[in-house]
Write a sequence for this structure.
């Protein structure tokens, strides 16, 4: 059941040419689907919307964004984000 | 990004390649040696590309192992789930449902719904998989996850993906997932604090970086904000399970419309 959605499209679509509009649509998929997964994980904590100043996940996103933008390094960005969260938590005394 | 010279990436490779040690010319043997190092480099490049995923998968796989153990799932079944099901959110949900003794059919259906987003992901990758054999597509598709999909789509070249790099990335990622599960299931009783060392931020940070690397035009920032917000709103409206796929479908469609409205933005 986890396999069918992964397998069918690559099997059916990889061998035929697609109309440009479909290509354009598919080109938007990575950004869309990643954002659709990311934003809830940042904003929804403990089953409720948390927009307050105490949401460390949102704050840590800022240095992560900057490092990702400047260095284009996935590894460096992940480390930065984790460091930011760890630092926040140790300062908050948790 | 530097790509290796795709020496034997044509689908007929292997067939017209001479076996090593065959009575070929000296020049051919030297070329064979060069080929092999080129191959190894590709594999290494693929493994390195998977490292940020590994940092996310080991702790999350660990958490899954711990949870599955607590839900009374045997060690063997827990590791088998990570080997065969290999799906983050779906595995966590399944454990929750198994613990609540929900009938098998609805667990299977829930899993399908949760993972429908992969329909859109592999569709997006498909144009880059031209010329792959059915068996290769089958193996590749099995290891497509949110994270490997994203990494592959940031390394799109103008042509197709480099096979051995792709497989090296995928295998490394799943190994990390299975290893994390293994350790978690074994250490299940030593209640682990996933919040320690900020391990719970590894995957969100990876997603942030992956989105940034995807963005090449300014209107994609808008697309990311709109789709993300839509997903949050749908989730708050109680549409868990469906929020990601619905937000993505609407977002990607809006993206196409944006580009048609503003021809200057699409270069």
């Amino acid at each position: 059941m986890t396999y069918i959605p992964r397998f069918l499209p690559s099997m059916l679509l990889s061998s035929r040419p697609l109309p440009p509009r479909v290509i354009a649509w598919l080109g938007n998929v990575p950004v869309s689907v990643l954002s659709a997964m990311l934003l809830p994980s940042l904003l929804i904590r403990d089953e409720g919307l948390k927009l307050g100043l105490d949401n460390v996940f949102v704050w840590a996103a800022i240095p992560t964004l900057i490092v990702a933008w400047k260095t284009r390094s996935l590894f460096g960005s992940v480390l930065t984000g984790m460091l930011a969260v760890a630092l926040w938590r140790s300062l908050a005394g948790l | 990004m530097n790509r290796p010279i795709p020496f034997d990436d044509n689908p007929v490779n292997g067939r017209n390649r001479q076996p090593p040690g065959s009575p070929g010319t000296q020049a051919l043997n030297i070329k064979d040696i060069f080929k092999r190092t080129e191959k190894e480099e590709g594999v290494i490049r693929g493994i390195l590309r998977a490292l940020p995923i590994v940092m996310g998968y080991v702790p999350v796989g660990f958490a899954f192992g711990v949870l599955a153990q607590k839900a009374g799932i045997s060690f063997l079944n827990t590791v088998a789930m990570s080997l065969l099901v290999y799906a983050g959110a779906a595995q966590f949900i399944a454990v929750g449902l198994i613990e609540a003794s929900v009938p098998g059919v609805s667990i299977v259906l829930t899993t399908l719904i949760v993972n429908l987003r992969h329909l859109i992901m592999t569709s997006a990758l498909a144009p880059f998989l031209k010329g792959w054999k059915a068996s290769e597509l089958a193996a590749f598709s099995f290891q497509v996850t949110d994270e490997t999909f994203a990494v592959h789509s940031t390394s799109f070249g103008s042509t197709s993906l480099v096979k051995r790099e792709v497989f090296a990335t995928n295998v490394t990622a799943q190994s990390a997932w299975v290893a994390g599960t293994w350790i978690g299931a074994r250490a299940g009783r030593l209640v682990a604090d996933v919040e320690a060392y900020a391990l719970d931020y590894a995957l969100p940070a990876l997603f942030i970086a992956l989105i940034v690397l995807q963005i090449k035009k300014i209107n994609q920032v808008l697309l990311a904000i709109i789709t993300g917000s839509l997903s949050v709103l749908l989730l708050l409206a109680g549409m868990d399970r469906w929020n990601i796929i619905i937000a993505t479908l609407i977002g990607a469609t809006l993206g196409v419309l944006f580009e048609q409205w503003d021809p200057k933005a699409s270069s």
